[in-house]
């Protein structure tokens, strides 16, 4: 415990302010006051310990209530403190919780908002727990690459059993008050004023012994089945974790809960230290803060394009053009957020299909209310009064231009016109309108009602107000919005180009699609490039290549060398599949084959034969390619493209790229994102040297040519954070 004699008056006052002490007769209420989420920074911990000691000393006090001021009960440790000197300053969270657990006077935690991580661990160390109906509790530390290290892995199983504890801790799920009550995690749900109710409850239990209320003194209800439960959980958890070490380490700590409490706590401490010092914990914490930091956007193009000064327009109604997969997903997202939507589709059959999907997807409970916000139409004039339109038609510049011309003439002059393009030039689209300042790219990811990323594209003339509106709309509909500049493929798909290209080159050299997918999935992606291609439809890329003149529906353009296009190495294997009608899952065959009604990708001898013949025809000698080479050859060119993107100012910060990949492309979160991984896990110098070495072997693979920015950063020892603007990380 800290020596209070050494404290200055200022510091003492601060402790008191962060854990306010008030008395209500025989009850002391300690209110944590550390906005925004009342996390346990050093001053809060000290304030709580001081408050508890003061309450113990006062004979007039017979019970103690702990609660949060403002919006929530403490939402956990202060993650920004991790790795800093204050994190290690005593009292640590464990001593705060020990003081609560061993208090001879009953301690009641009164929960509102979200009691998470250390916050929920504090509640579990208390003798009683009350919650308002809207409260949620949980131990989400696994998402930060750590475990609930303040006794959570020991106390939770003593209440709910090992099986449920594993489920809750390894998924980090938040559970609602009612479910917490039925699991025995909360003693009572209180309606009305929480402070009043908590004080009255505390009075009602005064004088009762606290010994049998201490969770630490209980035994785990399903202790005799622990081996069985852990074995059953192990397989699923390892598969789901895809390389993240925290989930299985959480299980190991929970397993120790069947031992005496102190022994289990010791095991929890050791495993926590292991995770805290791993490279994955900082990567996941970076991912957590980056997700929030991208809300503070700006762009080097124009200093007015900045979250601090740009004000969004109010959007109450949105038109969506196109009831295909994307248009329908976007409509669902908008309706779920309570916005009015006018969905336009010129094809009646497609419109009916879209309406059915929307009805099916909206949850039963709110479906009719949400559906009442939807108007469907085949007539453009129905869009005359909406505040914004999101066009989601087929990815063709000619078609998009036609649609934008119509929209420009029909919608009110102040309406914002957004294109859900995955890579077309937003300036060319804007140029057909008389309001290029109100044209913006809003690139959603399929399925649009589920995927969290929204890549917002700033065109040459897009105004700060328009971009602020697109970013705000993203927040309203629960997306993680990232602001990027205009270039072919923007950030996400532009970086995907080198990745997919290099993956196909690996087939020429000897790998099978399943070898490449396996290596990438072992790295942590949910799906390798070939399974992903089959899922999204191989025709999307093929149409794009045809539009760019790289291939034709019949094969290479006339007078083109088979393995080169516009002077660059080119592999036509994907085009060859499309020409055979193998477009992926939707046609039952692509890089893999699929049994009717199944999504399981089965290696296909037909594809293997096609690749073998191709190698023979073009004189490629098959060799064995290691998983390491596959990962490096696919991911380093993708990362390299990220450096080009930063160099050109297409992304303002490396974290914008990381967030794009984490939320739109399934990049494994425990590695922090491509740019973080490059710098903090692999090291920029190593990335550069590997690219150089691969480039020496494959001089005509132009994506392997290291970016000048990467070279420069390695030469000067510059860090990625130093390139960013407005970054707190
Ligand atoms: C031995 C130790 C064992 C214990 C370990 C732990 O407890 S580990 C912790 C276990 N707990 C968790 O993992 C809970 C993590 N937090 C959450 O899940 C959510 O923040 C929320 C549900 C509490 C509120 O959601 P919401 O959408 O209403 O709000 P929002 O998400 O936008 O956040 C508002 C602001 O607060 C910031 N901030 C938030 N939490 C922390 C923190 N712990 N720390 C520091 N800062 C934090 C956040 O960055 C943002 O700052 P900005 O950008 O405005 O400068």
From TrEMBL:
It comes from the Eukaryota. Keywords: Fatty acid metabolism, Isomerase, Lipid metabolism, Lyase, Multifunctional enzyme, NAD, Oxidoreductase, Peroxisome. It catalyses: a (3Z)-enoyl-CoA = a 4-saturated (2E)-enoyl-CoA; (3E)-decenoyl-CoA = (2E)-decenoyl-CoA; (3S)-hydroxyhexadecanedioyl-CoA + NAD(+) = 3-oxohexadecanedioyl-CoA + NADH + H(+); (3S)-hydroxyhexadecanoyl-CoA + NAD(+) = 3-oxohexadecanoyl-CoA + NADH + H(+). GO terms for biological process: fatty acid beta-oxidation. Gene3D superfamilies: 1.10.1040.50, 2-enoyl-CoA Hydratase, Chain A, domain 1, NAD(P)-binding Rossmann-like Domain. Pfam families: 3HCDH, 3HCDH_N, ECH_1. Transmembrane segments: none annotated. Pathway: Lipid metabolism; fatty acid beta-oxidation. Its main location: other. GO terms for molecular function: (3S)-3-hydroxyacyl-CoA dehydrogenase (NAD+) activity; delta(3)-delta(2)-enoyl-CoA isomerase activity; enoyl-CoA hydratase activity; NAD+ binding. CDD domains: crotonase-like. It is found in: Peroxisome. Residues 318-486 form the 3-hydroxyacyl-CoA dehydrogenase NAD binding domain. GO terms for cellular component: peroxisome. Monomer. In the C-terminal section; belongs to the 3-hydroxyacyl-CoA dehydrogenase family. Belongs to the enoyl-CoA hydratase/isomerase family. This is Peroxisomal bifunctional enzyme. It comes from Branchiostoma lanceolatum.
